[in-house]
Specification:
Blueprint lengths: L2 H27 L3 H162 L15 E7 L5 E4 L12 E5 L5 E10 L4 E6 L11 E4 L1
Antiparallel strand pairs: 1-2, 1-6, 2-5, 3-4, 3-6, 4-5
């Protein structure tokens, strides 16, 4: 026999031995299968009963747990809402606290300023009280001075009226003098025409010009008159400046002339002070 055949025969023998052994084992255990099957079925039935009971208990527990879960979820939602509200309230409280602290700081600063202002007001009140007392004293002095001034004004008015009368008389005398000068001028002209021997007689001034001071320069060197070329004023004329009572003040020389007014430079010396309203007359 070949080696392969020998091996094949050996394998067949081994398989036959194994088959016999298995049959022997199965035969040895054949009488216990029914009892084990009955035990298994009973155990299975017990297990199914227990499983059914356990399933019912589980269902009940699950339902209870679901209800508890829903309750817990509701409570959780409520607690979460309350927590959120508490957080919002806390944030609002913090914000309010910050605002209150800011307001308190501003109020404190304003109180400090108010205290300083009150001190300043009290000081100012004391100063005003002193000023009031001084003003009252000054008012009394002014009342006395006003009474004196009224008395002096009454005296001055009387003097002014007297001076006005004197001025009117003086103006009448000047008008009469002007008329006399005109008459003399006409006489001289006639004499010149018919009497050659007196041809060199000087011609007197033909016109007197009267006006008043309308203004004064800041340095007091220039004065302005209310008379101009329409009144006979010419460049280079000399004018005398005098008060209403006839008091001499000084002289001025015309350097600029318009139709209704003129300007003159003051010729030193000046006696007293030149004021608006002072009288002027040409020399």
């Amino acid at each position: 026999m070949s080696t392969i055949q020998k091996a094949f025969v050996f394998i067949v023998l081994v398989l036959a031995v194994l088959t016999a052994a298995v049959n022997l084992v199965l035969f040895a255990q054949r009488t216990n299968w029914k009892a084990k099957s009955a035990q298994s079925e009973q155990a299975l039935a017990d297990c199914q009963t227990k499983a059914t009971a356990a399933d019912k208990a589980s269902q009940t527990t699950i339902a209870t747990n679901k209800s508890d879960i829903l309750n817990l979820q509701t409570q959780l939602a409520t607690v979460t809402s309350d927590l959120q509200n508490a957080k919002n309230d806390l944030e609002s409280t913090r914000a309010d606290k910050a605002v209150i602290e800011g307001l308190a700081s501003e109020l404190k600063a304003k109180v400090d300023i108010l205290a300083k202002n009150m001190d300043a007001i009290q000081q100012r009140t004391d100063e005003l009280e002193k000023a009031k007392q001084a003003a009252e004293a000054s008012l009394e002095e002014e009342k006395t001075a006003r009474q004196n001034a009224e008395e002096q004004l009454a005296i001055a008015n009387r003097k002014s009226k007297d001076l006005s009368v004197k001025v009117d008389s003086f103006n009448e005398q000047l008008a009469a003098r002007d008329e006399e000068i005109k008459s003399l001028t006409q006489t001289v002209n006639v004499l010149r025409a018919y009497a050659p021997g007196i041809a060199n007689v000087p011609t007197p001034t033909s016109q007197r010009i009267f006006g008043s001071v309308s203004g004064i320069s800041d340095d007091g060197t220039v004065v302005y008159f209310t008379v101009g070329s329409d009144d006979g004023v010419k460049d280079g004329m000399l004018f005398i400046i005098y008060k209403a009572d006839g008091t001499y003040i000084g002289q001025a020389k015309i350097y600029e002339v318009s139709a209704k007014k003129s300007a003159a430079r003051v010729i030193p010396p000046v006696v007293g002070t030149i004021s608006e309203g002072d009288n002027v007359a040409n020399k």
